[in-house]
Amino acid sequence: MKKTIFILGGYGSTGRAVCRRLLQNTDANIVIAGRDVARAKTVALELKKTYLPERIHTAQADAAKCAELVESIKNIDLLLVASNTPQYAKNVAAAAIEAGVDYLDYHFNHNVPGELQKLDSEAKKRNRVIITQAGFHPGLPATFVRYGAKFFDTYESALIGMIMNSPIENSDSILELVDELQEPSGELFENGSWRKAKFRDTHIFDFGRFGKKQCVPLKMVEMHILPSMFPLKKIGTFVAGFNWCTDYFIFPLAFIIGKIFPKRSRNFLAKLLTWGINTFSSKIPGVVFVLEAKGKCEKEGKTLRLVADHQDAYDFTAISVVACIKQYLDGKIISPGVHMMAAAVDPEEIIKDLQEMSVTISQSLRPNGE
To answer: What are the sequence ranges of the domains in the chain?
Structure first.
């Protein structure tokens, strides 16, 4: 029987891409929902030109009004949160549990997994699956590291690097990035423990068509699952900057203003950052995502390089989300409770589905030093 997926915020930049990918790559029906039902209907009309109209529906829903949300989702299977509303994540997930449906989000905010974990016992009691931090950042970093393990007898280090370039359509879509700039929290795992990243903790990655870039560490909560799985001595997630104006002027300014006026400056800084990215960034579009891993295979030190490349950052996020949902729809993610995508998915299936959805994947395993 076909599943129905209720997409809260399905008319946003990434939400539209998720809707399209679900229709193209699964047999699920979708409900495009949000506070602005007119926008939802506009997106639905456009999608109905390409896909079966009976698969596409709309609804009005508000992440801040959970009682109404419970009523809206009672007859669906999965609530997918595509809206930029991490502050409501716990309440929305609780509404899903109350309505008897499963839940998935792709929030970037580091606090969301901890908040949702408070619902773990209730989710298990109600036999509900709660998946958080889907997408490609978070979502893919720890998934790629898990995939890399099969190449080594002894797994020693795993570093993730990413670069992305895409015009920002709506400044609201980067509010979570603004929040991160106000409280920078890069971290690295070394010598058996996690530590806060320092200014010198940069790493140069080769991003192919984007060239070699110096990258800074990020915090990715999902990476914390890895030390208990593998004997890794070093783990980190790194990101390249956007452009000279954004990196050297807007980011420092956002940090200072955000400290003084954290709430009042949020929307202003999002608009300023959007202007900086759209005005000064390279014209090369897309995303390149890299795993550099080291270890021993048959007693020889080797380096694995795994690269995912796609021309559209919004679509790459959508593809990563839908790759996770495909495993859910196939009955491969059925354990009740709260899970991060990176811990719940089969990494090999993710790689296969990324390729099937037009992501270019390349990998090489070479002796160290080559």
So the answer is: 4-135+315-352, 140-312+356-367
CATH homologous superfamily of 140-312+356-367 equals Dihydrodipicolinate Reductase; domain 2 (3.30.360.10)
pLDDT digits (tens, 9 = 90+) for 280-328: 888 888 999 999 999 999 889 999 999 999 999 999 999 999 999 999 9
User: By the 8 A CB rule, do 284 and 309 touch?
Assistant: no
pLDDT for res 298: 87
Q: How far apart are CA 116 and CA 130, in angstroms?
A: 8
Averaged pLDDT for residues 348-359: 98
The answer to whether the pTM exceeds 0.90 is: yes
23 class by beta-carbon count within 10 Å (0-12 exposed, 13-18 middle, 19+ buried) = buried
Query: What architecture (CATH level 2) is domain 4-135+315-352?
Result: 3-Layer(aba) Sandwich (3.40)
Residues near 7 by beta carbon (within 8 Å), at least 6 away in sequence: 15, 18, 19, 22, 30, 31, 32, 33, 80, 82
Res 179 pLDDT > 80:
no
